[in-house]
Amino acid sequence: MQQLANEVPVGVVTHYWTHLGVAGVHLDAPLDVGDRIHVLGHTSDFEQNVTSMEIDHVHVLHANAGADVGVTFGEYAREHDLVYKQVAPGEIAEGESEL
In this model, does residue 99 exceed pLDDT 80? Predict the structure, then answer.
């Protein structure tokens, strides 16, 4: 699978803690608990809802661009995997879906 038309890039995986099922993600755009994300990398390709997110071990419901967050992942992720947020077609600004 590849990036879909209704997805915008929000960050990149910087670390994955296998024993916790948590990925460290550096955000380039805001992210909220409840958002639907798509994780895409060389061998990773899965979609899930953001169910838990932390900044410095404190649970948060929202994180802004520039934040480093821990996100619970349902599948294994790898460093440098890209994280996309799925949005309604009307929410994508012109040219934003292109890398």
Answer: no
Separation CA 49–CA 34 (nearest Å): 6
This prediction's pTM: 0.85
Contact 83, 37 (CB under 8 A): yes
55-93 residue pLDDT tens: 999 999 999 999 999 999 999 999 999 999 998 876 655
Among left, alpha and beta (phi > 0; psi -120 to 50; other), residue 74 is alpha
Contact 32, 21 (CB under 8 A): no
Q: CATH homologous superfamily of domain 7-90?
A: Translation factors (2.40.30.10)
Contact assessment for residue 51 and residue 73, using Cβ atoms and an 8 Å cutoff: no
